[in-house]
Amino acid sequence: MHNMMIPFGPAHPALPEPVHLKLFLEGEYIMGVDFSVGYNHKGIERALEDMEFAKSIFMAGRICGICSSAHTTCFTQGVEKLLDVQIPQKAKVIRTIVFELERLTSHLLWLGMLGHEMGFDTLFMLAFREREYVLDSVELITGKRVVHDANTIGGVRRDIPPENIKKVNKNLGILKDKVEYLQNLVKKDPIIKKRIVGVGNIDKDDVEKLCLVGPVARASGVPYDIRKTDKYLIYNDLNFKVVTQKDGDCFARAVVRVQEMLESIRLARQALTLIKPGPIRNKPAMTFTEKESISRVEAPRGELIYYIRSNNTNRPARVKVRTPTYANLMCLNKILLGNSLADVPVLISSLDPCLCCTDRVTIVRNGKEEIIKLEDLHGHH
Amino acid sequence: MVIIEVIFTSIFLGFIYEGIVRKVAARMQNRIGPPIWQPIIDFVKLLSKERFEVEGSNHTLITFISILSVIALLSVVFIFPLVGLLNFKWNFILLIYLLVFSTASFIIVGFSSPSPYTIVGSTREAILFLAYDLPMIIILLYFAMNYKSLQLLPSNLILFFPLMFISFIGITQAKLGLPPFNISEADQEITAGYLTECSGFELAMFNLAKSLRIFIMVSLATILFFNPTSILMFFVYSSIILFVVISLRVALARFRIDQGFRFLWLFLLPLIFIDIIKVMFI
Fold first, then answer.
1. Is A338 touching B (CB cutoff 8 A)?
2. Mean pLDDT of the A294-307 span
3. CATH architecture group of domain A44-358
4. Cα distance from N-terminal residue to C-terminal residue, chain A
5. Which residues 207-266 of A have a C-beta within 8 angstroms of B?
6. How far is CA A166 from the centre of its chain?
7. Which residues of chain B make contact with A116, given a CB cutoff of 8 A?
8. How far apart are CA A139 and CA A142, in angstroms?
9. Is B60 exposed, middle or buried (0-12, 13-18, 19+ CB in 10 A)?
């Protein structure tokens, strides 16, 4: 018998994302979790099918505000496979730089949120202050700070002005010191450690069983990184290591993300030296045949998969997105049970969920869930 | 008329102290922060706001307790030696009673609404109350024993009891509900804790009580440990203590309830006893 049910979300100060958790408590401890999403389904997959390929890149970039470049890179990569185009080297380098800078913005935002969830607002303020350096750098490269539509089919839309390369390099140099300071803070502060060490353990077997991806998998000792396995863009030429930790608790996840930030800075600086004069785009002829392609990238939160099917028109016949949070949410029940209510915000944020990208539709008719065909669903709207 | 002057001055100082806490904390966190008089603006605005009556909550009790909590805290000000209006022989007992009541009022408010957030908030506050009030009462009673009087007298015992002072600062932090002890108002877990269902007039009263609590706890630390001889010295010492309180608020993350309890009883309480035993043998 549970003592009390605490509703957590869909509008909650801790989690600015539309998710609803019912936490069944006994005293302070969680004995049961009921989880429901579906409050913010945007129908983007359908919207992508209604647009021409050239336009739908922008729609893909707006699936997520934080990993916008990951989505466009993955989408364009898929479309380029359909068209059999090779993109010029310079475009690959610019895509890599934006991609890594985006990982930095995402992880800094996450670190700030972690601080906020454990009641440490100073860490939140510090992380967001340092994040400005990255946003400024992204602005110098793409002209935008948040949703940067840098990619297009066959290359990138904007060249980096030569004088900006120096500025970005300088910004990253400053940022490196700041991130090292934050790393020290997370690793050494006694109260932070008290809150996150040994909380929410996921072991290696569970990671493989539940197919977890990204930093969550790497924190449990599974070196699964699409940048290493797929070697897309120019990751083959760059020197970097996949950060892993053994323990699989919240602390390990924090350390993995903070160290990944340092790796990202290194990667971006390496990539900046590889910029050579040349074209930035191979403009392909936009003629599609009946084909399908799968493309994956390592988004800041983990493996992002796009499945694209084309027919003879200039619109995609089907686009399917599998965001990393969708894979990672599987372990939510496992890490929450048995922990105290005070740990819930920290545990949820340690997965770095982005629930808007993850939302799925459930059809409910006469109070029962139903599985229907895609064509029927499209008939509904 | 002196009574009215004292009431208005302490309310004003309470708001200003809270404003200073917010402003200085903001500057430490690299933010601009609100103006120092922001709590006054908030208070006036809240008074004009609508009151929502939550179904199943005891509304009369909440209103009554909110007023009583402010009155209790204002009475504490009268006990202070610099004001000296309640300057009778056993006012130490009254002081302890009023300080306990100010916390108890928050616990009662949480339990008088059926919302799970307020109930969890009140439960946490009640548990934490056991943890910080016992050390505080031990400190106060030790002072009384030291002076062989149950009257609140200014004393500069920081020279003899430095560890007790450290302990008192920790207790102040817990009593004020500031990090690392803002467990019962952890907005990430239980929104506003025991005050979740309050609105309008009651919320204004409780905010006023919280502001007064800052002023009273800081003043009490000043009176007990620094022996301020003039009003000027009183504010100098108060601002030093306030600065320490703000620094702790900014520099620390929040404890979990078990960690907070353990810290108060296993770290701050022994500090008091070390000081007492040390003095006994010297």
1. no
2. 89
3. Orthogonal Bundle (1.10)
4. 43
5. none
6. 28
7. 188
8. 5
9. exposed
Q: How far is CA A322 from CA A66, A213, A311, in A?
A: 16, 12, 21
The answer for B 8-47 residues in CB contact with A (under 8 A) is 28-31
- pTM of the entire predicted model: 0.86
**Could you give the residue ranges of the DSSP H alpha helices within B112-161?**
116-147
Q: What is the mean pLDDT of residues A360-380?
A: 71
Over range A25-38, report the average pLDDT.
80
Of A117, A129, A191, the CB nearest to B255: A191
Among A37, A41, A26, CA closest to A380: A41
Among residues A182, A173, A171, A94, the alpha carbon closest in space to that of A136 is found at A171
Helix (H, G, I), strand (E, B) or coil at A306: strand
Test the B interface: residue of A17, A24, A113, A121 with most B CBs within 10 Å: A121
Q: Quote the crossing angle between the two packed helices B231-251 and B162-176, to the nearest 10°.
A: 70
Q: How many helices (H) and strands (E) does chain B have?
A: 11, 0
- Provide mean pLDDT across the span B54-72: 87
C-alpha span between B275 and B139 (Å, rounded):
10
Asked if A12's CB is within 8 angstroms of B191's CB, the reply is: yes
pLDDT tens for residues B125-180?
898 888 888 888 888 888 777 777 777 777 767 777 888 888 989 999 898 888 88
Nearest residue to A132 via CA among A178, A99, A96? A178
The residue with tokens 């998998």 is A217
User: Residues of B numbered 223-252 whose beta carbons fall under 8 angstroms of chain A's beta carbons: which are they?
Assistant: 250-252
Cα–Cα distance for residue pair B40/B208, rounded to 1 Å: 9
Q: Is A13 in Cβ contact with B191 (below 8 Å)?
A: yes
Mean local confidence (pLDDT), B63-67: 90
Helical H runs in chain A? 44-49, 53-61, 68-83, 89-117, 121-142, 162-188, 190-196, 204-210, 214-219, 226-229, 250-273, 324-328, 332-336, 344-350, 355-358, 374-380
Higher per-residue pLDDT: A2 or B273:
B273
| H helix or E strand, kind and range, residue A291 | strand A291-299
Residue B251: closest CA among B19, B12, B24, B8: B24
DSSP state of A254: H
Cα–Cα dist A173/A157, whole Å: 26
B86, B75 contact by CB (below 8 A): yes
Query: Measured at the alpha carbon of residue A251, what is the angle toward residues A208 and A126, in degrees to the nearest 5?
Result: 130
Task: Please give the pLDDT value at position A379.
Answer: 66
What is the Cα–Cα distance from A122 to A145, expressed in whole angstroms?
Answer: 24
Domain ranges (residues) in chain A: 44-358
Residue B155: count other Cβ atoms within 10 Å of its Cβ.
17
Dist CA B105 CA B51 (whole Å): 19
Whether ipTM tops 0.85, in short, is no
Please, what's the largest Cα pairwise distance for chain B? 61
